[in-house]
From TrEMBL:
It comes from Desulfosporosinus lacus DSM 15449. Keywords: Membrane, Transmembrane, Transmembrane helix. The chain crosses the membrane at residues 12-35, 55-81, 88-107. The lineage of its organism: Bacteria, Bacillati, Bacillota, Clostridia, Eubacteriales. The keyword Transmembrane helix applies. This is Uncharacterized protein.
Amino acid sequence: MLFKDRLLRGALAGIISSLFMLAWNLFSYYILHFAKVTWLESLSQLVLGQPAKDILDFLAAFGSLIIWNGFLGGFFVSFIIPERSGSYLGRAVCFGYVIWFFLYSIGTLYKVETFHIASPVTVFSNWIAVMIYGIVLGWITKWWDTHEA
């Protein structure tokens, strides 16, 4: 196996999962017009303290998303899922919802505009996004654990 370290595998699973989550979020925003705010806009507001003004701001938000979700994936694999345990998908989806709730709580507490003034359809779209994140994270984690050499 190329990646024997569970922390590294978890970080990579978190990064891959975040790309699927972001793809849904952008699809929901640009194609379905379901979400009113993208994750990148929210993260730009959270990280930079202001809406993104140019491509560098969006790159900073995207980098923050990748690094944060890589960290969360490593945390998930190291502390939430014991080695070769069951319920990967259920635990991963619950983990995604807990993280989402935590982020929205912080955004509301500190009055980050894109978090505390969210429409119900944006919240629903984000629920779907974190469910996608959890499913992909759980599936990749299980696949790597069962295909380990």
